[in-house]
Sequence to fold (122 residues):
Amino acid sequence: MTKKRVLIVEDEENIAKAEGIILGTDFDIHYAKDGNEAIDKAKEITPHLVILDLMLPERGGYDVCFHLRQNQQFKDTKIIMVTAKNTKLDEDKGMFIGADDYLTKPFEPSELRYIVQQNMGG
Fold:
């Protein structure tokens, strides 16, 4: 069985690698380090799940989320926003734009795995 594709969008390489290590045994991991690359990569691979940092160079996470949600190609793609912004307003905005879930940094590996499993129906 083919592994489901996960796109990790994170400009801090150490965080991106850590997220990849946490999920790498269960998923086919792809990376993007800014918002524009995220959209290009998503169009290329049609991920099942996007783990999306909000604070990105070029194009922010909200913009990327909104762009993906406007495109029929990603109607089944789950989006989990990951950010150090932990106010209710930030979370509400993310959910309004179309995020499926929201995870605040710093988080435990088990939290990331749990949220991914919840959203992937695992």
Q: What stands out?
A: Helices lie at 13-23, 35-45, 61-70, 88-97, 109-119. The chain has five helices and five strands.
